[in-house]
Amino acid sequence: MRSVYRSLGWELNPETERRMKEFLDVQGGGKHQQHRYAMEQFGLTKARIESAFEPYRERFHGFF
Fold it and tell me: I want to staple 5 with a disulfide (CB 3.0 to 4.6 A). Which of 12, 21, 30, 37 is the partner?
């Protein structure tokens, strides 16, 4: 996180860093945790996603 903050020109103060470490300790460091999402959770459908990405898919068709 230090490098992320540094690249953004932000200061990572000791209290924030302590709280981040505390969070990771409680959460198990984020290791082996899975995130499962469904498009329906966000009000999306397969048709809507395909429609939104159609111009992109047409332009880069040969790259996949």
Answer: 12
CA distance 52 to 40: 16
Note if the pTM is more than 0.70: no
The neighbour count for residue 5, using CB atoms within 10 Å, is: 14
CB 24 within 8 A of CB 18: no
- Looking at this protein, which amino acid is placed at residue 3? S
The one-letter amino acid code at 39 reads M
CA distance 10 to 2: 9
| Residues 34, 2: Cα–Cα separation, whole Å | 25
**E-assigned strands of 1-64?**
none
